[in-house]
Specification:
Length: 366
């Protein structure tokens, strides 16, 4: 019997950054103490994320901010999509400078990159399109500081912003640790991933203790597409798996690398049919020494055949698991697919032999 063993594993890494409470009277070391004490100043904290595409306080060079004197956008904002930029000496500056109102507190809504919210009010649902084929594929962050007043008794009141990641991050790794076979992958895609939705900024400060009330939410997710992670345009772009987990690189028409996706619920109700969400891997498995194809074979079910000219097979792995039914904002989901086969797959083997007994035919002459 020919057998294929396919193992999938999933791990979650929280991307929630380190947090400080939102306040306007912190005295940050290294920040110049000159200027009017009534100026609205900004500072940010370094978070825990270190991947090269992720936005961190280390590589965050600019963000935009709105400020309101109430929770209604019927009045003109006190700060209207103001660009705040990090200077060479790590001081956050903007122009023209705004001053703390004497009799009102302020609610601050900050975000990056600038084209995410743009001229839309953060007090209303903000639409976003994460389609990588139309400019998605980037991290977006947000911060809220609510009900803040300038402390005129301190020489340098600052608004401390803690940014959260608004999207979910995905990483897909593939490997095979069966030495006697060659697993060659010709395409990889994520199926039925929704790319559009509306983001609602929280009303409460994005502080250290993350709660449902101080975390942004997504609604109206729609427009599901196939994310093509590996889509070769030549045979030399096929990927041969090794025992070292491989993160697919962007080549051909494949996106490769990490993905930033809209948080959404996941489904696996029809074993990869209908609106199910899954990882689709297309490829073939060969004998490493002879090059003979071991899978797919004449015994492979029709639903596992790709129909391409190479005669590859199709494997489907659900994006949902027994412990995971949705992607949440600020989480990094790592899907690790280990595609193994029986190391004797397809080989001619001999079992314990048996020998027929002689059939006795007795003839007697007298």
């Amino acid at each position: 019997m020919k057998k294929i063993y396919i193992i999938s594993a999933l791990s979650l890494l929280g991307l929630v950054p380190s947090v400080v409470s939102c306040s306007s009277d912190e005295d940050i070391s290294g920040i110049p103490q000159s200027g009017s004490a009534r100026e609205i100043r900004f500072a940010t904290e370094t978070d825990l994320t270190r991947a090269h595409k992720d936005i961190t306080a280390t590589n965050l060079a600019t963000f935009n901010v709105y400020a309101y004197t109430s929770e209604s956008d019927s009045l003109a904002p006190y700060m209207d999509n103001v660009v705040v930029t990090k200077s060479a000496n790590n001081v956050w500056t903007y122009s023209p400078v705004k001053y703390w109102p004497a009799n009102n507190s302020l609610d601050f809504y900050a975000f990056s990159p600038a084209d995410w919210v743009g001229s839309n009010s953060p007090l209303r649902p903000v639409s976003y399109d994460a389609n990588p084929y139309s400019g998605g594929m980037k991290d977006i962050v947000y911060a809220v500081c609510s009900d803040i007043k300038g402390n005129l008794d301190r020489p340098n009141p600052q608004v401390m912003l803690n940014f959260r990641h608004a999207l979910s991050k995905l990483t897909l790794k593939l490997s095979s640790n069966t030495p006697n076979v060659k697993v060659e992958i010709s395409s990889v895609a994520l199926s039925n991933v929704k790319t559009k939705g509306n983001f609602l900024f929280p009303k409460e400060t994005t502080s250290k203790d993350q709660t449902a009330e101080n975390t942004g939410k997504w609604t109206d997710q729609n427009d599901a597409i196939h994310y093509n992670l590996l889509w070769p345009q030549a045979t030399d772009e096929f990927v041969t798996l090794t025992s070292t987990p491989t993160v697919l690189e962007a080549q051909g028409l494949g996106l490769g690398g990490d993905l930033y996706v809209i948080p959404q619920t996941l489904s696996w109700a029809n074993k990869g049919a209908g609106d199910d969400d899954y990882i689709m891997v297309v490829g073939s498995i060969f004998d490493a020494e002879t090059g003979d194809k071991l899978w797919p074979s004449e015994n492979t079910p029709e639903e596992n055949l790709s129909g391409n000219s190479r005669g590859d097979g199709t494997m489907k792995f659900p994006l949902t698991t027994s412990s995971l039914s949705e992607w949440q904002p600020g989480y990094h989901y790592i899907y690790s697919l280990v595609i193994n086969v029986d190391d004797q797959m397809g080989a001619i083997q001999f079992g314990t032999p048996s020998v027929d007994s002689y059939v006795e035919v007795t003839t007697t002459y007298e």
